[in-house]
Amino acid sequence: MRIAVPNKGRLHEPTIDLLERAGLHLENGADRKLYADTVDPDVSVLFARAADIPEYVADGAADLGITGYDQVREARADTVSELLDLEFGRCRLVLAAPEDGDIETVDDLAGATVATEFPNITRDFFAETGVSPDIVEVSGATELTPHVEMADAIVDITSTGTTLKMNRLAVVDEVLSSSVRLFGREDVLEEPKVREVRTALSSVIQAEGKRYLMMNVPEDRLEAVRDVIPGMGGPTVMDVANGGGKVAVHAVVDERDVFETITEVKKAGASDILVTEIERLVE
């Protein structure tokens, strides 16, 4: 099975890091190579432009692909299905216009010109609104086009909005919300290896922001400790060899709850509290 991943850019390193943490360690995958094996002899990685990955998957050059949702929508890859939101690379495609101009709503763009690197997404957006501007495809520096009279507005990617502000552009409407996702061709979705890869990647995502708590608790204080532990279901309780009336309590909690949880379980009688990171979590 072959997984297509971004070969460069802002999505490359996070994608490779995710594969590594999921146990799919890359082998012989030096820079400038098109392919790399993984420790799983049945899984290899294909490096490609993020925008080309949906087509690689749809055409059968790869079985799975990791790229932005915006790229899949732009490619109109109808035979490609989403398997998992990988929860990084978040961004928005927005409709923006000069902040000191006359365009304040989508309706103001009737008969106007809109520049974008995403013509298909932009056409779909305006088709839903019933407004029909002239859409001009550009290959870069989209935010400059209104200032050189190439366009009245743009549809472009933004993460923080800083670039738009620097170029005196204001958001008129949101066109699409995107993040990096795992996609697969429809004819391979039920294959065991595809399910294994999805589970492996999902286990890393599930572990994000979680911590594993271990502590010793007097048996007569167990219910009090249980009552103050948040998290996934109830804690695991185990006997302690020569515990002297104590049991071991293990629990998974959100990282943001760790400080308060430690304080509360100590008040309830817990001791010897240990907090560790979780690399993977299969639910």
From TrEMBL:
<dbReference type="InterPro" id="IPR013115">
    <property type="entry name" value="HisG_C"/>
</dbReference>
<dbReference type="Pfam" id="PF01634">
    <property type="entry name" value="HisG"/>
</dbReference>
<keyword id="KW-0028">Amino-acid biosynthesis</keyword>
<protein>
    <recommendedName>
        <fullName>ATP phosphoribosyltransferase</fullName>
        <ecNumber>2.4.2.17</ecNumber>
    </recommendedName>
</protein>
<keyword id="KW-0479">Metal-binding</keyword>
<dbReference type="InterPro" id="IPR001348">
    <property type="entry name" value="ATP_PRibTrfase_HisG"/>
</dbReference>
<dbReference type="InterPro" id="IPR015867">
    <property type="entry name" value="N-reg_PII/ATP_PRibTrfase_C"/>
</dbReference>
<comment type="pathway">
    <text>Amino-acid biosynthesis; L-histidine biosynthesis; L-histidine from 5-phospho-alpha-D-ribose 1-diphosphate: step 1/9.</text>
</comment>
<keyword id="KW-0368">Histidine biosynthesis</keyword>
<dbReference type="GO" id="GO:0000105">
    <property type="term" value="P:L-histidine biosynthetic process"/>
</dbReference>
<keyword id="KW-0963">Cytoplasm</keyword>
<dbReference type="InterPro" id="IPR020621">
    <property type="entry name" value="ATP-PRT_HisG_long"/>
</dbReference>
<keyword id="KW-0067">ATP-binding</keyword>
<dbReference type="GO" id="GO:0005524">
    <property type="term" value="F:ATP binding"/>
</dbReference>
<dbReference type="Pfam" id="PF08029">
    <property type="entry name" value="HisG_C"/>
</dbReference>
<keyword id="KW-0547">Nucleotide-binding</keyword>
<comment type="function">
    <text>Catalyzes the condensation of ATP and 5-phosphoribose 1-diphosphate to form N'-(5'-phosphoribosyl)-ATP (PR-ATP). Has a crucial role in the pathway because the rate of histidine biosynthesis seems to be controlled primarily by regulation of HisG enzymatic activity.</text>
</comment>
<keyword id="KW-0460">Magnesium</keyword>
<dbReference type="GO" id="GO:0000287">
    <property type="term" value="F:magnesium ion binding"/>
</dbReference>
<dbReference type="InterPro" id="IPR011322">
    <property type="entry name" value="N-reg_PII-like_a/b"/>
</dbReference>
<dbReference type="GO" id="GO:0005737">
    <property type="term" value="C:cytoplasm"/>
</dbReference>
<keyword id="KW-0808">Transferase</keyword>
<feature type="domain" description="Histidine biosynthesis HisG C-terminal">
    <location>
        <begin position="207"/>
        <end position="280"/>
    </location>
</feature>
<dbReference type="GO" id="GO:0003879">
    <property type="term" value="F:ATP phosphoribosyltransferase activity"/>
</dbReference>
<feature type="domain" description="ATP phosphoribosyltransferase catalytic">
    <location>
        <begin position="49"/>
        <end position="201"/>
    </location>
</feature>
<comment type="similarity">
    <text>Belongs to the ATP phosphoribosyltransferase family. Long subfamily.</text>
</comment>
<dbReference type="InterPro" id="IPR013820">
    <property type="entry name" value="ATP_PRibTrfase_cat"/>
</dbReference>
<keyword id="KW-0328">Glycosyltransferase</keyword>
